[in-house]
Structure formats: C-alpha cells, structure tokens
Amino acid sequence: MSDDQLDDPSLAEVLVHGPRPVWVTLREYDPSWPLRFEARAEQLREVLGERATLVEHIGSTAVPGLAAKPTVDIVVGIEDPDDEAAYLPDLEAAGYDLRVREPQHRCLRTGEPDEPVNLHCYPPGHPEVRKYLLFRDRLRSDPADRQLYESAKRVLADREWADMNYYAEAKQPVIDAILARAGWPRDQRWLTAEGGSVG
After folding, report:
1. At the top level of CATH, which class does the domain 3-181 belong to?
2. Which residue ranges of the chain lie beneath pLDDT 50?
3. Domain map of the chain by residue range?
4. CA 115/CA 113 separation, integer angstroms
5. d(CA 106, CA 75)
6. pTM
7. How far apart, in Å, are the Cα atoms of 153 and each of 59, 106, 120, 150, 166?
8. Which PANTHER family has this protein been placed in (predicted)?
C-alpha cells in the first residue's frame, strides 16, 4: 500500500479502526512461535470446523532462525470472506477483532499485547495465499534470501511508523525481489492492507 493510498480518505473503508501508529521491534527467533501457531490453529479448527479449508502459519515467525516481530501470522482459507455472517461472529466470540475489510480478504487481530496474532481470511486458492506460502517456503529454504530479508527488516525496525502499512510498504522491494527469485511474476505485487506483507 503506497503513501498515497494511506492518505486516501477511502482508507477508512479498509482499515476498520483507521491508521494506528506502531513501534516496530524485532526479536531473535523464538522456538515458541510455532507452538503458539499450533495452539491458535487448533482453536481455529474448533471454532470454524469445515469452514476453515486451510490453516497455515505464515510470515517471519514461521521461518526458523529469522528475527521477527513477535506476532504470529496465520492465513485461513474461507470460501467467501465477504460473507461475514457465515464466520465472523464465531471468530469475534473467540476474541478476534476485525481490523481490515477488503474484497475477498479480512484481517483480524487477537492476543494483544503479550501474544499477538494476525489472522488473514482469504479464499483458499487466492493469489495472496499462494504468495504467502511461496514467500515463507523460500525463506525457509534459502539462507541468502532469509538473511537479505532480515537485514532489510533490521534497517526499518526500532522506530515508530504512522501505520503498519508504511512498514510493510518499505519492505516491498525486497519482498518483490525474493518472490521473483522464487518464481512469482514481478508485476504481481502484494497489495493487501495491514500486514499484507507479513513478518
């Protein structure tokens, strides 16, 4: 998301609570992150049942050895995220707060401040889901790209951003380059709001 998009009045229609200043701090990789994912994944499967056609750990906390914000990112496959009545009340009852509403994408948050989780709901075959998994798997398997991404994040960390989307946008050139090496077409960028580029 570009600065122009962030300043656009229509942003209020996407970011449910509006832009929020955030201080970005990285932590060294913590082996408890996958355990936190597993606990949340089990909860999501119980809450959503067959409506959750996919539950995957994505973002930097899903990459062993990679420093990250201590926020566990999860993508859940929901056949029609725009049909909020079919799943959103159950997620809200489980403590998730809707933060982003975009066509075919909802982002929710829970666990603040101690064990934050971003939950991205997409149709299971959505291109963003494929990108999340491709990017995660590339970082897991390629030490050079993992180090490149961590270095880029360290340059951008330890400061406040007007909104998480500014931080995500600042990482975008490195993400695009890594995705291209992993086989994703360069002209298809990661465009989702708040956490579109996770980790």
Report:
1. alpha beta
2. 1-5, 9, 190, 192-197
3. 3-181
4. 6
5. 10
6. 0.88
7. 13, 25, 21, 5, 13
8. GRPB DOMAIN PROTEIN (AFU_ORTHOLOGUE AFUA_1G01530), GRPB FAMILY PROTEIN
